[in-house]
Amino acid sequence: MKISVVGGGYVGLVTGTCFAELGHNVTIIEIDPEKVRAINNGKPPIYENGLEDLLKKNTARRLRASTGYKPVTDADIVFISVGTPPKPDGSANLAYIASASTSIGEALKNTSTYCVVVVKSTVPPGTTDKIVRPAVLLESGKTEKEIGFAMNPEFLREGRAVEDFLHPDRIVIGSSDSRAGNRVAEVYTDIRAPVLRTGLTAAEMIKYASNAFLATKISFSNEIGNICKRLGIDVYEVMQGVGPDPRIGPRFLNAGAGFGGSCFPKDVSALISLAESCGEDPQLLRSVIEVNEQQPQRMIQLLERHVPSLNGKKIAVLGLAFKDNTDDIRDSRAIPVIEALVKKGARVAAYDPMAIPSMRKLFPDIEYCVKVEDALTAAEGCLVMTEWPEFSQLDKEFDLMAQRVIIEGRRILCCDTTEGICW
Ligand SMILES: NC(=O)c1ccc[n+]([C@@H]2O[C@H](COP(=O)([O-])OP(=O)(O)OC[C@H]3O[C@@H](n4cnc5c(N)ncnc54)[C@H](O)[C@@H]3O)[C@@H](O)[C@H]2O)c1
Q1: Which ranges in the chain are annotated with CATH 3.40.50.720?
Q2: Measuring from atom 25 of ligand 1, which residue has the nearest CA?
Q3: Residues 6 or more apart from 330 whose CB is under 8 A from it?
Q4: What is the pLDDT of residues 119-178, one digit of tens each?
Q5: Looking at residue 87, what DSSP letter applies?
């Protein structure tokens, strides 16, 4: 099939590259010319395990990127994967969705074949029907007989995105009619996974409900962890006994500094805002966010128990990415921790194997270290914020510190004399 993917970020680039790998002819439409240049040169503008090889292989064959919408004119199917960031009130900003829909409509004005427009971005229920559909139909001057609409939420995890995209747990296809849904299903023919066909709004809600549930699992584990710490119980031992119950499941039970990333915080906030707008009081979801916001502050409190005055003290922060295997720092738990340390006058020395360039844009004035040892030398305290596997080997490096005060926000270190936020 001829596929256009609008938005070449984490989701769009992985989606486009994997569709090309499956044998489709793909054009990624991206407004940022630098990303377009990089993609066409086979260099992913983001880090994702395995992506560079797939991109190199496919840019030479079935994949290209463009800043213009012309490729939409002969596409069989167009996926929208632009960002839906939070507005200050927590609701989803749908401006990029609206603008992409208008551009797609304009491009479809003079076409004569049936095309399906699919929303892959995470959007509040009603967006495909009430924002995307009218904009595309109005701009193109066409009817729903000529353009179909579908919603196909994406469940990939950053850091494992290619693997997740090619081997998903399920494929959800919401559509306004079966012809549109069938075409989306055809694109995925070579992927082995259960396919769930739904209406548009149910597909939109499935994504929010999934992310809210996972975020709830994390905040729940953190609350249990906080109680366990008070009682001197190892929460990881506890969760080992909790997870095997198939009604619960062993994943997402890791207590620690909380969840970050481009999805959980913004999607839970958008769901809260959505609930409030329809007259509901989402108490549980609000608590999920509250627990998550407290965890980084707890790390600072724990640090201050060992280093009572942080003013002028060197503090090492190990890990800036919101999780391992990615350079993404969006809503990373390292951000509130660094903010608090800077506010208290500490000298922050930060290390991360991938995410320093992104964090430097946010905090240009703290010290960034190319080696863990540089961050640790003469530090009065160390906070571990990301579960990078390389941190598990650290031990004697901590002897470089002025004192071994090591606070773990993630259970990753193997050495003794550390204190975990919940253990
Ligand atoms: N990142 C994830 O792990 C993940 C997982 C599942 C779902 N999602 C959802 O997918 C969507 C995209 O997320 P992302 O992380 O890829 O965002 P991103 O910010 O990395 O990428 C979005 C891209 O869209 C481009 N863009 C914006 N407006 C455009 C337009 N009019 N035309 C063409 N390009 C345009 C931007 O320049 C950017 O490169 C969001 O709704 C997100 O919630 C993300």
Answers
A1: 2-198, 230-423
A2: 7
A3: 260, 261, 262, 322
A4: 999 999 999 999 999 999 999 999 999 999 999 999 999 999 999 999 999 999 999 899
A5: P
Return the residue matching tokens 């090492």. 316
- Ligand 1 atom 33 nearest Cα: 30
- b vs e for 352-374, b when ≥16 Cβ sit within 10 Å of the residue's Cβ? bbbbbebbeeebeebebbeebee
CA atoms of 208 and 269, how far apart (whole Å): 10
pLDDT band for position 38 (50/70/90)? very high
Q: Across the beta sheet with 195-198, what order do the strands follow?
A: 63-66, 25-29, 2-6, 77-80, 115-119, 147-151, 171-175, 195-198
User: Is a pLDDT exceeding 90 seen at residue 26?
Assistant: yes
What is the architecture, at CATH level 2, of domain 2-198?
Answer: 3-Layer(aba) Sandwich (3.40)
What's the whole-number mean pLDDT along residues 236-245?
Answer: 98
Query: 321, 329 in Cβ contact below 8 A?
Result: yes
Which pLDDT tens digit goes with each residue over 251-277?
999 999 999 999 999 999 999 999 999
Ligand 1 pocket, residues with Cβ under 6 angstroms: 6-12, 29-32, 35, 81-84, 96, 99-100, 103, 121-122, 154, 156, 158, 262-263
Look up residue 125 and give its two tokens: 């229920």
**Is 230-423 assigned to CATH 3.40.50.12780?**
no
